[in-house]
Specification:
This protein is α/β, with parallel strands linked by helices. Helices cover 29% and strands 23% of the residues. The protein has a single domain (12-175), classed as 3-Layer(aba) Sandwich (Rossmann fold), CATH 3.40.50. It has six helices and six strands, in the order αβαββαβαβαβα. It has a six-stranded mixed beta sheet, with helices on both faces. β4, α4 (100-116) and β5 form a beta-alpha-beta unit. The longest helix has 17 residues, at 100-116. The radius of gyration is 16 Å and the shape is globular. Keywords: Nucleotide-binding. Pfam families: Ras. GO terms for molecular function: GTP binding; GTPase activity.
Length: 201
């Protein structure tokens, strides 16, 4: 039976856990703050552990509420990442288009998610800092080919000018199954940072 706008099925809010992963200083926190509050801060301090934020996306046929874990990129926090991506329905792996090492790091995160994450996790690869075109070191075609080979989404974004930030989350929301059982509220990791500001760009 088809759903129609305004029906009870469409009024339901679908909750999905989403985690951001990637090397330090690629702009994970800036992407989240731009998406959630439409703000951008040029200089922000590094995330400690992880920060938790929420935001809702309205699709034509559903409302999706993302419960977002923005993880720290520093190497010393890497061992904590499984606590955050465990049970996640979606993951955004961020790299900096001006930093080829961060793209190598992103590939490592994708491989880890494919090996240890939820088997149905929706993975999106985000090439951030697309406003710095003159300093580009990772070609769009290269990253896009990698994403296609791995069956994951790929967009280039700019937290600074907001380009493609909302689109990134909308594309993920469209891809997520809306008829899946909703996850139980889990006990969140104790090492976290609840503040929504002062996060690393």
């Amino acid at each position: 039976m088809a759903n129609h706008p305004g029906s009870a099925a469409n009024a339901r809010v679908h909750h999905f856990k989403l985690v951001l992963l990637g090397d330090t200083a690629v702009g994970k926190s800036c992407l989240v703050v731009r998406f959630v509050r439409d703000e951008f801060f040029e200089f922000q301090e590094p995330t400690i552990g992880a920060a938790f934020l929420t935001q809702t996306v309205q699709l034509d046929d559903a409302t999706v509420k993302f419960e977002i874990w923005d993880t720290a990129g520093q190497e010393r926090y890497r061992s904590l990442a499984p606590m955050y991506y465990r049970g996640a329905s979606a993951a955004i792996v961020v790299y900096d288009i001006t930093n080829p090492d961060s793209f190598t790091g992103a590939k490592s995160w994708v491989k880890e998610l494919q090996r240890r994450g939820d088997p149905n996790v929706v993975i999106a690869l985000a090439g951030n800092k697309a406003d710095l075109e003159t300093r580009r070191a990772v070609e769009f075609e290269e990253a896009n080919a990698y994403a296609q080979e791995n069956g994951i989404l790929h967009l280039e974004t700019s937290a600074k000018n907001a380009n493609n930030v909302k689109s990134l989350f909308i594309e993920i929301a469209k891809t997520l199954p809306k008829n899946a059982p909703q996850p139980e509220k889990e006990a969140f990791p104790i090492l976290q940072q609840q503040q929504e500001t002062r996060n690393c760009c």
